[in-house]
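Re: [help] complex structure
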Amino acid sequence: MSDLKRQIIVQLNLKDLKPEDIGDDQPLFVEGLGLDSIDALELIVLLQQEYKIKLSNAEDGPKVFQSVRTMAEYITAHQAQKE
Amino acid sequence: MNNYQDKRLLTEKYIIASCSIRDSVIYKNGKAVFEEKGDPISGFLDKAYQYFNTRYPKFYKMDNLSKLGLLATEILLNENFIAGNYQSDEMGIVLMNASASLDTDIKYYKTVSDIASPALFVYTLPNIVIGEICIRNNFKGENAFFVFKQFDATFMAQYVNNLFDNNLIKGCICGWLELLEENYKAVLLLVEKQQGNQSLVFTEENINKIYRIDNG
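Output below.
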């Protein structure tokens, strides 16, 4: 999950944060990390660029991007499907 | 004193403060307040942001034009602006430059061949910097961004005076905000109806004077 946190920081230009500043279960949006709707689109781009995963159903977004842990679980599940 | 002169005095506005940023140096009212040579524009702006201890969570996500405008405004307003003197819809912003948002347009275009960047796309209009300044300062007044080949003090004076004279604004941030790759110049003025210490009357001549001095 540390790699994923680093990728999120780079993708979203969160230069004032370090990976250890982001909790595994910390909400990414609103009261948590404070990300906004443009950041959500950038997270979708991150999944495509880094993991070749296309979020096919937009309604999955809130669940997938709830926290770094839910993102990591989504990525792991997709990678397992590919193998 | 005739009626015309009476009216002119009543409607006179004053340049309360100026901030310019060029060649890796930031000037407040003509005096250098920050210098960091040798960095590209993005590094210079980030270092200035840290130096002035500015706190705006979106800063690092913004494009360079917005960073330049936000920083110049922060320094312009610091110690020269009392937010409580104005309702949020009484502060206007009028900016102009030559390259619009071309710097970010080019960066965005380069991403299109792969996966278009949403974060870059939202900055592909020059007036977005005005939005960032408004959000930061809770300004909701009249605003406009004009694209000219070069700074036009005549137009700026007329446009801003017109906003004041029609009671659309009571204070204004105006000036030149140009950025394309590593070439950048910002010269912003704070204009108010009340005369301040060492303020100049907001005239075309004085705007040009500050622009020339602050702009090298």
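Chain A has a mean pLDDT of 92.
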